[in-house]
Amino acid sequence: MRYPIEDYDKYGYLRAPVWLWLGWLFLARAWVVFVIAGVSRQSGEKMLGIVYPDHLALYVDLALGLPAIFLIWLIGLRRPERSLISKILRMGKAVSASIIIIQLNVVMYRIYLTSGRFHWPEAVTLVVLCWFLLFVLRSRRVTHCFKGLSLK
């Protein structure tokens, strides 16, 4: 056994690391903003206008966040009797890396559109996406989590 017993869920599957959950939430940040804006009724439209002045950028980020939300949902449904979900989750590392690379390209394109001018949101997004890509590609725990290694 490579990991402490506390790192496994009640079905014997290795739990996803906290950094993976936080990274997925970062990939789905447009959905988080969208839900928060929907909950705050009066100021929701104003909040979306501040965070996403361009509606196309919101729609693109919502589309790019869907696979991360799908992975979050599927990892919660993982059970020994649900072999199809386990098969889909085996591709989770590749899907996560693909989403990150696509979002990196989108951010680079947005930087290109502003003629390379420095903006803090894009800079922070680039750093976080690069770090998360390295984490997903290099972490053994992430690999083991998606392989479905279990105690049983």
From TrEMBL:
Keyword annotations of the record: Membrane, Transmembrane, Transmembrane helix
Family matches, as InterPro entries: DUF2919
Transmembrane segments: 12-36, 56-76, 88-112, 118-137
Signal peptide: none
Family matches, as Pfam families: DUF2919
Presence of the UniProt keyword Transmembrane in the record: yes
Name the UniProt record assigns to this protein: DUF2919 domain-containing protein
Source species: Vibrio albus
